[in-house]
User: Fold these one by one.
Assistant:
Number 1:
Amino acid sequence: MAKYKITLIPGDGIGPELAAVAKDCIEATGVSIEWDIQEAGVDVMQKAGTPLPDSVLESIRKNKVAIKSPITTPVGTGFRSVNVALRKELDLYACVRPCKSYEGVRARYQNIDLVIFRENTEDLYAGIEFQKGTKEAGEVIDFINRYSAKKIRSDSGVSIKPISVFGTERIVRAAFEYARKNKRRKITAVHKANIMKFTDGLFLEVSREVAKKYPDIEFEDRIVDNMCMQLVQMPEQYDVLVLPNLYGDILSDLCAGLVGGLGVAPGANIGDQYAMFEATHGSAPKYKGLNKVNPVALILSGVLMLQYLGETQAAERLERAIADVIREGKSVTYDMKEVRNDPTAVGTREMGQAIINKMKAAVR
Ligand code: NAD
């Protein structure tokens, strides 16, 4: 019997070709996995009547761990994003995005090794919004104008920003636990507490309280605008960042840019019961079926999954093989070449095979 049963969601667009390669690379580490393959996304919408059949959630609830390729968010169909639905249904409250420099990736900086912990459920992304001109918006505005010295104009749209003690405690705790487990030295909480005293202020206050329970790990905080400047000027000074949802979203992309962009940006969505690993990038439909795009972000997400499972050596072997292939710069996809139409660029499958060959050569 396999040691692990893991849900694999091939997704749509470039998803299935990336999933096939990532699966082969993860298997080549020797960790014994039985894959529970579950279809979701635009390709199953017609057959199943929904882009997220119940069986997908049931499978993850049973197996606890999933790896997911990108899924297109259908526009104008009334279906919400499958990616958001999965995070919400499974309460995957921590979005973890490591941003690490690999030699050979074209980027402005070297030696960056940051990890972002973005809160995934609250803040301005909670989805509590009132459209300008509606009865509800009018009532909300009237209510606020009664209780606040500051007035909202009647022709406003309103988005609500809830940040709770519960939500903050668990994301900050998750960041500290990760730091401890992965021998990271410092946590930086990012906020705008000087302006938003009752939301970001609460986030900062609760972060400080949680930090007291982890005296072995350094703790500091930064105001988000200053953090952006510091990340661009001296990213090497930072280690693990913990942020509310909106700042986390923006700084995740900033940090992905620091290390070379979407092709190499892995991610994880983690809750107390379940974890789902996925690349930061989307389904890039225009490249579908062309065997062209970079599989590294999803394979690195597989590295994160192996780490999460406690398969540390397998994770290290796979990451080393990826790093070697990137450093050599030979068997890499078009986006990693100096000129985009370099004819020596290889396809998705060939890059995956080069990574597998590296792992095989290392054990010989
Ligand atoms: P995208 O990330 O799919 O693509 C943007 C561009 O980035 C591509 O055109 C391509 O040039 C480049 N790119 C992306 N992945 C690459 C890879 N592996 N290798 C090389 N180049 C790569 O973003 P988009 O076009 O805004 O979104 C397309 C669809 O994906 C949308 O429906 C969106 O909702 C969805 N999406 C899904 C996820 C997810 O599944 N978690 C995340 C983001 C976007």
Note: The first helix runs from residue 15 to 27.
Number 2:
Amino acid sequence: MTITGKAEVFGVIGYPVRHSLSPVFQNAAFSHLGIEAVYVPFEVRPEDLRDALEGLRRAGVKGLNVTIPHKEAVLDIADQVSEEVRDIGAANTLVFSEEGVKAYNTDWIGFLRAAEEITDLEGKEVLLLGAGGSARAVAYALKRKGCRVFLWNRTKAKAELLAERFGLEVVGSPEEVIGSVGIIVNTTSVGLSDEGTIFDYSLIRQDQVVIDLIYRDTPLIKAARERGCSHQNGFPMLLHQGAESFRIWTGCEPPLKVMVRSLIPYGYPKDYPRTPLRT
Ligand code: ATR
């Protein structure tokens, strides 16, 4: 479609942000629905966050995604935060309006929508690996589903803080509970390269579900596939958190199939989702 001077501007702020795939599928969605809007990445250093948000608001930007390292810092700048943002302690979506800046979190719902493509979460026992920013949204989502969550993190003190906030149980090593859990979720950065493993992956059983938030097939995902487990890398969560941001900004049903198609050249697994997408 042709973009005129009337186009609305959305984007993502992060540092670094050039690698972000959000512009790919958000622009595909705008274009498919004939919404005259563009979605662009804005590289913003932590020390410039407040000024950058004020500048973007004044320039007429309608909404933003927020990524590393700003997800927590935006809480101090936003005029209003949703209930989920308050509970999770992080935001990934901003809406600019005459009333100011409102912060939302769609990571938790993105995780649920993605995980529920391959498994039922209700009341399950889960091993959660990592206690960083993404682990918070996942922990919140799992607790909303009534899961019993065992948390392991390299730095135990961080695990204890997260566990206290969300009612999780800290374990000293993944091996302590690997034999009993139904679902394993990795939120650590281990697997970004092919180096290193978090625990002995030969302990994973075929009846376990393995989810990795990294959007590539990590050694953990490869091990799960070899064992014949249901498994999912981070692409579906990326899609669904973005789709929920799109819904907040536009009020339109996100065109999921179009969004997925746009991500396939960037590695979105062709055999996902296991359940058909609604739109
Ligand atoms: P994100 O927002 O993506 O969660 P983050 O907040 O930087 O990123 O968190 C990174 C997570 O990966 C943390 O749980 C971190 O563990 P520590 O709290 O001990 O730092 C984990 N992590 C990073 N490198 C790791 C490694 N080599 N082994 C185990 N865990 C690692």
Note: The chain has a mean pLDDT of 95.
Number 3:
Amino acid sequence: MKKKVLVTGGTGYIGSHTAVELINEGYDVVIIDNLYNSEEKVLDGIEKITGVRPVLEVFDLCDHEMLGSFFSKNSDIAAVIHFAAYKAVGESVRKPLEYYRNNLVSLINILESMKKHKVPNFVFSSSCTVYGQPEKLPVTESAPLQPAVSPYGNTKQVGEEIIRDTVDADNMIKAIALRYFNPIGAHPSAIIGELPHGVPENLVPYITQTAIGIREELKVFGNDYDTPDGYCIRDYLHVVDLAKAHVVAVNRLIGGKNKAGFEVFNLGTGKGVSVMEAISSFEKVSGISLKYKVVERRPGDIEKIWADPSFANTELGWKTQSSLDVAMKTAWDWEKQIRKKS
Ligand code: UFG
């Protein structure tokens, strides 16, 4: 019998890539998504890649009753991966209560349902935003967490604390929090990828939309940072590598190989890349000369951060495989593919 994994937010960017990898690994995937920031047709893509169409239940995880009746029908779930959340940093500053309600109420509802129905394994989407601007780079999991600069970031910090306390209370639930650095790119088939609504906030979709002609030019936020070339530095990892880490985390929990009830892992490449290096990589793989202009710094931007992924490398046996160039190429292939259709 295939083991069943619930993926909340499974029609979203990282969720859909993870659904593909879980199916490839032989898991039975069930998705809950309210389609707030994604589309049902993503299921067609998952089916095209894997030959399997996951079950999708469309409802809001803040709806305690709906979630309760879902778990009553699905108490055989072996693990939950919880992606569903609001994720726009700037928007969270304008709408803090919506962010706290959505991200925290849904998390509490899921953990309560898991306890009630004795579903023991939980994987949480966390973020390197919890580190703020780290004093030492690369940053390890034991680095002190900094006060969050946005309500969004705070929901990740508080979310981790809620999970830790829940695990510590009675050890019924075992959990892994995965702190993502900057996921980019798309599935190599160009059948699924990132579908930002409106004007993209993140660098890579903004680059690809500029290159294809939807945006006039990329605004590069600042070139006077204390970094070798003056541009901000991030750790960009390919979304398929990130998706695979979730499969490893689920295998670890189901196989009882976790060493503590609650574990935290950095997921990054270990390599810092500046905004200008990211642009150069895109130009190289696409053959396009990108239109961009350096403008003021973006408020709230961290100057430089990249991961020390050695804990994930040794403990999980997980390591990123794709280079920046490969990740950029998949992002570009995906952009060309979606524009061809529409
Ligand atoms: N950037 C630009 N122009 C743009 C967009 C981004 O120059 O139009 C620069 C930013 O200043 C930054 C880099 O590109 O230096 C990356 O910016 P992103 O917005 O792509 O990513 P961030 O590192 O700011 O944010 C990401 C996630 C957040 C998460 C954060 C830390 O989008 O959800 O990492 O984990 F909180």
Note: Residues 87, 89, 127-129, 153, 182, 201-203, 206, 218-221, 232, 234, 275, 298, 301 surround UFG (CB under 6 Å).
Number 4:
Amino acid sequence: MLFNFDNSYAKQLEGFYSSCQSAVVPTPKLIKLNSELASQLNLNIESSTISDQLKIFSGNESPQGSLPLAQVYSGHQFGGFSPQLGDGRALLLGEVLDENGQRFDIQLKGSGRTPYSRGGDGKAGLGPVLREYILSEAMYALGVPTTRALAAVTTGEKIMREMPIPGAVLTRVASSHIRIGTFQYFASRGEVDKVRQLANYTIARHYPELMQSDNPYLNLLEAVCDAQALLVSKWMLIGFVHGVMNTDNMTISGETIDYGPCAFIDSYDPAAVYSSIDKQGRYALQNQPPIAQWNLTRLAEALLSLIDSDQEHAVELATKVLNEFPEKYSKHWLQGMCCKLGINNAQESDSALVNDLLALMHEYHVDYTLLFSDLAKVLSGDKEAAHKHFANVMTFEQWLVRWHDRLAHEGMTSDDSVVLMSQVNPIYIPRNHKVEEAIESAMKNEDYTKFEALLTVLTQPYQQQAGKDEYTQPAPKEFGAYKTFCGT
Ligand code: AMP
Ligand code: MG
């Protein structure tokens, strides 16, 4: 048996999903099995053959003990409410406990139609599957809470998008797939008992310490606000643009989910948008913290009737929690930015130092990731690399003086600061052109060498790796403006 399933969602939340089966596909081939994650999840890989694994990860056979189901949810998509969404191209096979007893969902993505597919085919293309594999595993290695990739297979069939493309299935692992939208679905239908049932389940699964509290539902809102403030600060610190922060794509656990039109910035631009459909820039880099708060307000609305029977009082309590979000976020972010500059303990006054650097980076189109590596070199006595980013070195030099003063005030040695900086400033991120190269070579020639090479580099993003300089550089000019698409 590959998985030791323990299916709490299927057993405890009847009425919150539809049971269904995955589609049968012609000739599945294994692209990648994440053996490190498999062993962390206690999977019995050794006792299963490749052919068994292929059957399971392609959806051709339901693994023993699974109870495949599609979860129902709603969601605000680009600000507008869609009452009826759900897993339209995904199936939850079941849950497993990892070596520490922590519970994880095992989900197939791209495994065929479900009752929530609407007009879609329920399938996934090879490109988006590889993209999600690379991005989610890179985020994990960077230390950002995220869903992970356990396996990727091609199905041997062509699916229709703008043109026929190879079909694929990703096996996704998440601490759960409960979204803000899951709460919205039942709240919007006035099914308060179901909202309560879901909240109780969620608290027991993700925030068990709240079970005994006086107002567990208000505390649940608070806990999700905390988790999202931390998560979004981590995105901002590494320059990650999620691209489609709809409420159905925001988890209650605080993990990043749904790697569709996401990308990492190269040159620093607060207005960076990559998604081909985000014409207004709703989900631009700088909008991510306020959008997170907007989404959390939708969660608060869904929980209101549980928070207090007096609606006015419930609104008062929830508003107080929501209003704390910007400060919680800013604290995480400023502390993180200070660490990126080799400063151990952030002071409120540091925000000017940080924001002035960002303004300079914006003005001179400086590569966000490279600059922090090059700032560490300044502390080791080499200014040349950092200088190269600025057409006008004078203003940057003035900033450097302020930075040195601040470091002296902190009382840290340069060596200490360099160590701190190397722990938080990645050398390797999934550079957009490298991701595209890996996908292109897989799509055109079934050649996964670049995909594997990129994954290997991204597994150790903070470690200098010999001979891997090409992965540190931004895209060449001819790569042009990067556009990404919803992962269908
Ligand atoms: P997303 O924007 O990727 O989060 O997807 C939004 C909704 O569309 C979700 O409910 C998905 O399940 C559904 N969806 C996306 N692509 C497909 C597809 N190819 N077939 C069926 N449903 C889909
Ligand atoms: Mg989604």
Note: The mean pLDDT is 97.
